[in-house]
Amino acid sequence: MSSISNQNSINNDNTPLEVLKKYWAYDSFRPVQEDIINDILLGKDTLALLPTGGGKSICFQIPAIIREGVCIVISPLISLMKDQIDTLTKKGISAVAITSEYTNNEIHGLLQDAQNGNIKFIYLSPEKLSSKQFREYVSYMRVSLLAVDEAHCISQWGYDFRPSYLEIANIRSVIRSDVPVLALTASATPHVVDDIQKQLLFRKKNVIKKSFERKNLAYVVLSEEDKNHRLISILKKTSGTGIVYVKNRRRTKEISDFINSQSISSDFYHAGIDSKDKTEKQNSWKREEIRVIVSTNAFGMGIDKPNVRFVIHMDIPNSMEAYFQEAGRAGRDNEKSYCIMIVNSNDADQLEEMFYNTLPSFEVVRDTYIGLCNYLQIPKGEIIKDKLPFYIRDFCNKKDLNFIKVFNVLRLLHRERIIFFSEREKRQTKIMFNVDSDYIFEYLQVNTYLDNTVKTILRSYAGINSKFVNVDIGLLSERSGINIYDLNKNLERLSKDGIILYDKAHAIQTIKFLVPRQDGDTISTIRENIESNNKRNIDRLNSIIDYVSDNNICRSVQLLKYFGEKQVCKCCVCDVCLDKKRTGVDSKRYLSISDEIKSILNSKAHTSREIIDITKNRDKQELLECLTIMLESGVVKMNEYGEYELQS
Fold first, then answer.
1. Where a domain ends, among 209, 232, 261?
2. According to the model, what pLDDT value does residue 587 have?
3. Are 461 and 485 contained in the same domain?
4. From CA 40, how far away is CA 46, in angstroms rounded?
5. Based on the domain organization, do 131 and 173 belong to the same domain?
6. Where do runs of H (alpha helix) occur along 203-289?
7. Which residue range is the domain that position 178 belongs to?
8. Whether residue 198 sits in one domain with residue 62
């Protein structure tokens, strides 16, 4: 296969379909993919709305291959970056991700390569995009396309607003003005659609949308007080792998352990797990060594597994957008799959209570801002231009404030340009040797495997015997030939044995004030915005509670109408549609008849006539209606001989 490395190699002679066939071996595009690609090739800013599994990446990869230059892809998902880079590299297309795994020197080299025309795709986070180092290099690059994945994150109307996304538009002033932007999302309401285009400085509005309808998904809401029992019942009746979502980290392990106790293989996952363990858990699930992964919403984004047969929510999600995106990870191979939410009588009240406890009113925003200024010792009427380290938990403890509420206030102040709030900023590791050279020599005679680590540190940093020194773990790894994971383990051992004092790098927040401190007057200028933001969030909460509570309107119809689709049809496979189909059969009688049918089919397949003959005492019409319901809901299937058999 030919290689694309020099970005000055123009592929204008190739049509999009020819590129698709050449590198992906597909004979045709999915609906609207070609329309999106053609608009990008014409240089149009474009917002692409595609359902999960709709083939978003091809929409920017193909025009980027055809256009001259390097494509910049902005994504918050490192796992997605790695997957796509691996795929592109195997096709002979040069692609890199600028992440914190690289040292500054390595990043310098990668950006130099891109500047020289040796890289076709650069993947990076919005934080990396706005760094001084990247901006200096990108101004000299020939950029072909700016692709923004998870574009809903840029909108304050969106459910997953990320302040760092607001900085993306600034890069447009650095690159050529004719470089098109492609924004992609699988969940955007009409308000969010407008806001994305505004925030990304679209030269002209341009939206291409494929319906968010997923005909292969059955959306189900089950009312059940004993959720764990119902969960196991579902897992035993369904086949294949799936995801179970819960709200907090502790419950991931508890429920995973419970599933394992029922002889169903399971593991747990959340954001607090070590990155190496995360990768192992993801890969075990993808390889189907385990059947069920129990996780917080930290799992799923950017993980490419098409044959997920079920997604089960044990709690009500915070919004329709969050639910639609998480549920949409099922059935990306277009095979029938289930999206099930198990709720009890207290869930809606608990969600509302948690929501209102963390909703920041104008008064809360004002008081938190004043407390923040006092905590960071900002004089009235003045502005400090430096970035200040900020320890949010320490601030909350000292002021006796709710952590989530404070976090929401900081994001709001960032959006309103009162402060610049960096949610995660890495601080360098600090090391100082705690023993003299003779002791080090004796220690290494016994612990020979640490010899390389210790000597590399001593050679790299002068004065480390007498004072704390900032060390670059990536550089030490490079010089010692030890991978970063093992190097950190070695440093922890040296610290435990008292050889070094080890202040490990960790993520901290920083705050930069953008306007002089005026206390209440500062916040009064944004009072209207605070109140409208709260109203949006309340509306979002009410929408998901209405969805769970409404047992009259098809679940798929409710979801699609929320996202602004008007011409929608009933799905006929959700719990609401199936319940309506049963109106001719009493629910208790349906359960009785369906149990009898399952018993009959347990030993062998039968035609409907044979089943009628076996159940002579049953009403024929009722029995046929029950068979139809069971077929449409996936309880039974029809084989090539026209016989009914149980789903395996």
1. 209
2. 64
3. yes
4. 7
5. yes
6. 227-237, 249-261, 275-286
7. 16-209
8. yes
Helix pair 527-549, 347-358: axis angle to 10 deg: 170
Looking at residue 509, its pLDDT comes to 79
Query: For position 388, what pLDDT does the model report?
Result: 87
Q: Is residue 180 domain-shared with residue 260, that is, in the same domain? A: no
Query: Which of residues 149, 174, 209 is at a domain's end?
Result: 209
- Is 570 a member of any domain? no
pLDDT of residue 292: 97
Query: CA-based Rg of the chain, rounded to a whole angstrom?
Result: 28
Q: How many domains does the chain have?
A: 5
Q: Which residue has the tokens 């390097």?
A: 70
Q: How many CB atoms sit inside 10 A of residue 584's CB?
A: 12
SS3 sequence of 104-159: HHHHHHHHHHHHCCCCCEEEECHHHHCCHHHHHHHCCCCEEEEEECCHHHHCCCCC
Answer yes or no: do 42 and 101 share one domain.
Answer: yes
287: CB partners within 8 A, 6+ apart: none
207-209 and 46-49 strand pairing? parallel
Output the pLDDT for position 12: 54
The CATH number covering residue 324 comes to 3.40.50.300
Q: What is the dihedral of CA 557, 559, 564, 566, to 10 degrees?
A: 0
Residue ranges of the chain with per-residue pLDDT less than 50:
1-3, 5, 7-10
User: Nearest to residue 214, comparing CAs of 317, 323, 301, 298?
Assistant: 323
> Among all chains, which residue has been given the structure tokens 């968010």?
212
Task: Give the number of other CB atoms < 10 A from CB of residue 439.
Answer: 13
The pLDDT score that the predictor gives to residue 507 is 61
Amino acid 604 reads K
Q: What is the pLDDT of residue 8?
A: 43
Kindly give, in sequence order, each residue whose CB lies less than 8 Å from that of residue 528, ignoring residues fewer than 6 positions away: none
What tokens appear for 257 in the block?
Answer: 């352990």
CA atoms within a 13 Å half-sphere pointing along the CA-CB vector of 96: 20
DSSP 299-349: SSTT---TTEEEEEESS--SSHHHHHHHHTTS-TTSS-EEEEEEE-TTHHH
Provide the pairing of β-strand 217-223 with 337-343.
parallel
- 121/73 Cα distance (integer angstroms): 7
Q: Is the dihedral of CA 232, 237, 241, 242 positive or negative?
A: negative
Q: Are 296 and 245 in contact (CB under 8 A)?
A: yes
Per the listing, tokens 């996952």 go with: 269
Residue-wise DSSP of 236-248 = HH--SEEEEE-SS
- Asked whether residue 369 is domain-assigned, the answer is yes
